[in-house]
From TrEMBL, chain A:
Family: Belongs to the LAMTOR5 family.
Name by which UniProt lists this protein: Late endosomal/lysosomal adaptor and MAPK and MTOR activator 5
Compartmental location: Cytoplasm; Lysosome
Gene3D superfamilies in the record: Dynein light chain 2a, cytoplasmic
Keyword Cytoplasm annotated: yes
Main location, first listed in the record: cytoplasm
Matches recorded under Pfam families: LAMTOR5
Source species of the chain: Mya arenaria
Keywords tagged on the record: Cytoplasm, Lysosome
Amino acid sequence: MSTKEMDALLRFRLPGIAGVICTDEHGLCLGAKGVATRETSGHIANIAESAARLNPNLPPPVIAIESEGGSILIKKEGTITMGIYKSPN
Amino acid sequence: MAVPFDRIPDSLGYLVLTEDGAVVNSGGDLENKEDVANQFMNIIQTALRIPLSSSKKDKFKKLSIVWDNFMYVITISAHKIYICKRRFIPPDAAMA
């Protein structure tokens, strides 16, 4: 996903989306928009990879980290990992 | 203390860990799975480092790892880590 596409994702103002982050399989931040910060790219890539290793025969899972301050949805697809920050309702 | 995991709908297994990852209790598909517990600990420790909001004290309340048909739901309470493996039934798309 290019930075243009990430901008578009935020510009559409889809309800509740506060930020987007995109990393490669090594944790290198390819883009971070909104509340997402580059510093978290390593953690996000690590979580996606570790979760996928729980069941290596299955496609990578979706990881949802939820708290009162919002939530993050993380998914690995090929060599790219995406994180979507959602604001609380 | 027995935790009533059988009351959780569609529960397939559970793990209860201490904060440092030792298995206190387990059952179902996750019974005696210490290696899986260690993998979960890595995920949980990384998730605790991700800031979810501007408040540094905001730690996650629930961590879900979802595949097509099942999921693991993780929460931390009273210095214990609770992991439940549950069947996942995706919600139906809205019917016209």
